[in-house]
C-alpha cells in the first residue's frame, strides 16, 4: 500500500522535518497513488511556521493497533502515560464505528501523527469515507489529531462548550504537548474547532447504523460528550470513565459523581470504551472503580475542610489511600484534590 505525504519542516529549524500524511490518496500500487495526485492535486493546510516541501507517494506509514470490540466497532488502547517522545502523544484512547455508508472516528489522539496512524487503521478495515470525527472533550490527548480526519472530509463534532474551551486553551495545549513530545514529531499538529456542536443530544446515521451523542453538564470537564452505538450496545465514554489511569478532574467533582451515576443507569449499553485503559469494560460494573475514587475524593476533601486544613495540607492527604489502585497517581491526584477543595470549600 502507498499513501501521499508532504514533507513539512519547521521554518525556525529547517533541519526538523516530518512527512505529513495527505489522506485520500491511498492505493495498492505506487503508480495508482501518483495518478491520484495528478488527477486531484492536494492543497495542504499546515500550521504557521511550517515550510512545505515536496509531495510524494510513499509506502504506508505506521498503523495504530485496534481491537474489534463489537461488530464494526474498533477501539484503540493508548499508552498509560503522560505525553512523551517515546509515545508521540498516543496517550488517550480512540475508536471508530463502521456503518453502511460511512465511518465515524471517536477521538483522535494527542498529535497529528497519532491521527495519521488511526486513519490508516480505518483504511485497513474499510474504504468507506470518514464522515465524522467526534471529540469527547477538550483535552489535548483526545483532540490534537483531528485535523487528519478533517482533511479527509470529516465533519468535526463536539459538545456545545468545546469551541470556547479549545479557543481559550489552544496555544497552551500546543505549547505543552509540543514540548513533551518533541518539535519534530509534533509537526503538522493543529487545533480544530467543531463544525457541529451538540447542546443536549444528537443522532448520527452512518447508514443503517445510528450513533447517539449526548452532551453532559460539567463533570470531568465542561465539554464532555458520549457516543453510543445502538446496534451493539457499546458506549464511548471519553474521560467520563477512567480505567487503570488515575482519573483527572478538570471540571466539577460533584458534577462528575452525578453524571457517572446517570451513565451507569442508562439502559441499552452493556460495554464501554473508556478514555483510558480498557479498551473495553463491562457496563455498568466498569464504572465501579471510578465511582469509588470519586466518593473517597469528596469525602476526604470535606473532612479536610471541616478540620480546617489548608489547601496545601489537604493536597498531601486527600485520597492517598487510593494510590495502589491507579497508575500515574502522584501526577494526577494532587491536581484532583486541589480542584475538589476549591469546589467544596464553598458548600
Automatic annotation (TrEMBL):
<dbReference type="InterPro" id="IPR050855">
    <property type="entry name" value="NDM-1-like"/>
</dbReference>
<dbReference type="InterPro" id="IPR001279">
    <property type="entry name" value="Metallo-B-lactamas"/>
</dbReference>
<dbReference type="Pfam" id="PF00753">
    <property type="entry name" value="Lactamase_B"/>
</dbReference>
<protein>
    <submittedName>
        <fullName>Hydroxyacylglutathione hydrolase</fullName>
        <ecNumber>3.1.2.6</ecNumber>
    </submittedName>
</protein>
<dbReference type="GO" id="GO:0004416">
    <property type="term" value="F:hydroxyacylglutathione hydrolase activity"/>
</dbReference>
<feature type="domain" description="Metallo-beta-lactamase">
    <location>
        <begin position="91"/>
        <end position="276"/>
    </location>
</feature>
<comment type="similarity">
    <text>Belongs to the metallo-beta-lactamase superfamily. Class-B beta-lactamase family.</text>
</comment>
<keyword id="KW-0378">Hydrolase</keyword>
<dbReference type="InterPro" id="IPR036866">
    <property type="entry name" value="RibonucZ/Hydroxyglut_hydro"/>
</dbReference>
<dbReference type="GO" id="GO:0017001">
    <property type="term" value="P:antibiotic catabolic process"/>
</dbReference>
<dbReference type="InterPro" id="IPR030829">
    <property type="entry name" value="SoxH-rel_PQQ_2"/>
</dbReference>
